[in-house]
Design brief:
The complex is a heterodimer of chains A (317) and B (444). By secondary structure, chain A is an alpha/beta fold. Chain A is built from 10 helices and 14 strands. In chain A, a hairpin with a 2-residue loop joins strand 9 and strand 10. Chain B has 444 residues and is α/β, with parallel strands linked by helices. Chain B starts with a helix and ends with a helix. Classes of the chains: A alpha/beta (317), B alpha/beta (444).
Chain lengths: 317, 444
């Protein structure tokens, strides 16, 4: 798949700090892309630049082969992190207005609105004012506003924050369906579970710099530490003896005669070698490689980054 | 352009469907004219039928006192005691007793007996007549013709004639109060619609909808749409309010000023007569209007005002002043995160408008002073101050200078506001300072 968006060497400075420093990211068409990073890393700054709310100080952004320009606004849907609606305006008028701002004609906007309202079973909300709706209902309206113009690129900033599990699931399903229909989705989140569940690839931003990028599968593979979990029945001592110096036990516990051991193998030792060695001494119940979660990777990389800059600043002091 | 139109439309619709706005638009002129009518009504004495029994023991006033539409006088030689005890049964509302020693003077010489108070207007009506008759009587007793006295009285009017650069003179029909009122009206409208822009901007920011909107339109377009939207709204409101006020005041003046305008006509024909025939005329006819001279003067001034000039200037200055201030208000509205912070930022703007208001009040006393001149050129105060000067006759070059300064300044403030606005609307949770706003100007 070609890239829908190429972010090339984008930098952005505010008066006293750099929000983005030479960030380059490519986002493949029809993928779900996770933009990760701790608070204040620069994610929202980047998202605002893609939405043309602010401009970069240097660098450029290519949208489907063209330099990003104001005509692209209508092909992008945006759900900001700080999101709200006009409290006193009726739901129908509000969505119609926002859809027209995205370039839809009034008639088209009405048609699409009817479609979404039926889909979310909210036909009788049309005349209701936003302030009369519950928070969950408002979130549905916000989501409709984001997708009503059938954008090719959807940008969701912390889409699940504040959503109850039912709405969150609803939105997840919609995201997957939108992808099936050809859309590309970028979302920024702290929820690593949803990253593993939904994202094809990610970029990790920390302290205004990109520190990691790639497909979720690849990244997790690359961060493997040759660690395995084995559950077995049999002689624990015999099991550990067969290990000799080939591995290090990280964790063990026993329940109903079944021992579960997590161990890190020495460099060069493979999982199948381990299995061959221990097979004669015990009865294996399960054997798994421990692949680090995105959560672990996130924490590790961000901490690493902080340590490096931490020592640097200590040094200069 | 389509997007700006959408924004303008929303801005107008959201207010036009707002009940408070509709009620305000209709109620404000009703209240103002209602209050005016009430004041006028209050100032006029109540006209209740008075049937007066006069017991003139001095024998000086027989048939000399005159009644009017609602006051009838009847004379009697009855004993005072009887009269006082019987008057209400006989259908009189009060008894006026004049003592035989009236001409010698002294308190208690005239008494009025009543059951229901006849009111202040009636009392002055009677008192004035009695005083005049006594006055003339005393003059006659000294062999002086009262006509001589009344003809020697003269009201003096100061007529102002301004000499212009070409040496021509023109009579100044300066109506300072009217100028001040239009200036005050300008102050009222600019601050009202400026605040409306301010609130509208702040509402979008505190609602957190603004980020969604600026992902579809440029912040500058959004700001412009708002400012124009409120301007259109203001015009609609202004027209409705103006129409209601016009209809009401026309109706009111038809009711209340009918007498005065007909009196003005009589007065003017009398004046003509005096001009033609000199001092041989009986001045007493003219003299009747002495207490109404100021009112006549006011009426003439109102008739003389060049309304077209005033209205055109008002519109031009309102547009310029509104755009100048509302863009500043939009910039400040974008910097504020909550209602409670807003005071700190709106105060300087309101103060600068107030300064204009005070200079406008100075125009009434001293229309050609330096401060008034500069006040009508500097764009912060010019819309208000120039309006207060307009009826004084302002040289065309001053008008042109003042208007061009105002319009150039508004282009500048709008540009400035745009820069502050697009950063301000996205700043959350940080307490904003003036210094911070200054930095936003330089963000790319």
């Amino acid at each position: 798949m070609p890239d829908i968006l190429q972010i090339k060497n984008v930098s952005k400075k505010y008066s006293n700090h750099a929000a983005l420093n030479d960030v380059s990211i490519n986002i493949a068409q029809n993928s779900i892309f996770g933009l990760l990073g701790p608070n204040g890393a620069g994610k929202t700054s980047l998202i605002r630049i893609i939405n043309q709310i602010t401009g970069p100080d240097s660098g450029e952004i290519i949208f489907k082969g063209e330099k990003l320009n104001s005509n692209h606004v209508e092909r992008i849907g945006y759900l900001p992190e700080e999101r709200g609606l006009y409290k006193k305006m009726s739901v129908g008028d509000q969505v119609l207005y926002l859809a027209q701002l995205k370039g839809l004609s009034k008639a088209d906007a009405k048609k699409r609105l009817t479609y979404w309202f039926e889909k979310f079973e909210m036909q009788n909300w049309w005349k209701k004012k936003i302030e009369e709706l519950s928070k969950g209902m408002q979130q549905k309206v916000q989501f409709i506003v984001t997708v009503i113009h059938n954008p090719e690129l959807l940008i969701l900033d912390e889409p699940f924050s504040g959503f109850d599990p039912i709405n969150a699931q609803l939105i997840k399903n919609e995201i997957l369906e939108l992808k099936k229909n050809g859309a590309t989705i970028i979302f920024s989140t702290h929820n690593m579970g949803s990253v593993e569940e939904l994202c094809d690839s990610i970029a990790l931003i920390n302290k205004s710099e990109k520190i990691l990028e790639g497909s979720v599968k690849e990244i997790r593979k690359n961060f493997r530490t040759n660690t395995f979990t084995v559950s077995f029945k049999g002689n624990l001592l015999g099991f550990t003896n067969t290990l000799w110096a080939g591995g290090e036990i990280l964790n063990k516990h026993t329940e109903d005669d079944v021992h579960t051991i997590t161990l890190k193998l020495a460099n060069g030792v493979t999982g199948s070698q381990l299995l061959q060695a221990v097979l004669p001494t015990c009865e294996i119940h399960s054997f798994n490689e421990v692949i680090p979660s995105m959560n672990d990777i996130f924490i590790m990389k961000v901490n690493q980054g902080n340590e490096i800059t931490g020592t640097k600043s200590n040094y200069t002091e | 352009m389509r997007k700006i139109r959408l924004i303008i439309g929303r801005e107008i619709k959201s207010k036009l469907t707002n009940k408070t706005f509709i009620i305000m638009t209709i109620l404000a002129p009703l209240l103002i004219t209602g209050f005016l009518a009430f004041m006028i009504k209050m100032s006029q004495s109540e006209k209740t039928e008075q049937n007066v029994l006069v017991i003139d023991d001095s024998k000086l006033f027989k048939d000399k006192l005159s009644g009017n539409d609602y006051i009838t006088l009847s004379y009697s030689n009855q004993d005072l005691k009887n009269a006082v005890s019987e008057f209400s049964q006989k259908g009189y509302s009060c008894v006026l007793w004049i003592s035989p020693t009236i001409i010698e003077g002294g308190a208690g010489a005239i008494k009025l007996f009543y059951k229901k108070s006849p009111g202040f207007g009636f009392q002055t009506f009677i008192k004035d007549q009695l005083e005049k008759i006594i006055y003339e009587n005393k003059l006659k007793a000294n062999n002086i013709d009262p006509k001589i006295i009344s003809n020697s009285k003269q009201n003096v009017k100061l007529i102002l004639e301004k000499v212009n650069d070409k040496g021509n003179t023109e009579e100044q029909s300066s109506f300072a109060l009217f100028g001040f009122l239009t200036g005050a009206l300008m102050f009222f409208f600019i601050s009202m619609y400026g605040m409306m822009v301010f609130r509208s901007v702040m509402e979008e920011k505190t609602n957190r909808i603004v980020e969604l909107i600026v992902s579809s339109v440029k912040p500058f377009e959004l700001m412009l749409g708002k400012i124009i939207g409120v301007a259109v709204l203001g015009t609609i409101q202004f027209i409705i309010m103006g129409l209601i006020t016009f209809i009401l005041t026309t109706a009111l003046s038809a009711i209340f000023l009918k007498d005065i305008s007909s009196q003005l006509k009589v007065f003017e024909t009398q004046q003509e007569l005096v001009k033609k025939n000199g001092t041989n005329v009986d001045f007493s006819e003219l003299e009747k209007f002495d207490d109404k001279l100021e009112l006549f003067d006011l009426l003439k001034k109102i008739q003389k005002i060049d309304y077209l000039e005033v209205i055109i200037c008002f519109i031009l200055y309102f547009i310029g002043g509104y755009l100048f201030y509302s863009s500043l208000m939009a910039a400040i509205g974008s910097a504020v995160d909550s209602e409670s912070d807003s005071q700190q930022f709106t105060t300087p703007i309101m103060i600068s408008l107030m300064v204009g208001y005070f200079i406008a009040s100075k125009t009434m006393l001293d229309p050609d002073s330096t401060i008034v001149f500069w006040g009508s050129i500097i764009p912060f105060t010019s819309p208000i101050v120039m309006m207060s000067r307009i009826t004084n006759g302002v040289p065309l070059w001053e008008l042109a200078l003042s208007l061009s300064v105002l319009y150039i300044s508004f282009v500048f403030t709008t540009w400035l506001a745009g820069k502050i606005y697009r950063t301000g609307i996205l700043m959350y949770g940080k307490k904003t300072s003036w210094k911070e706003i200054g930095k936003w100007l330089f963000y790319k």
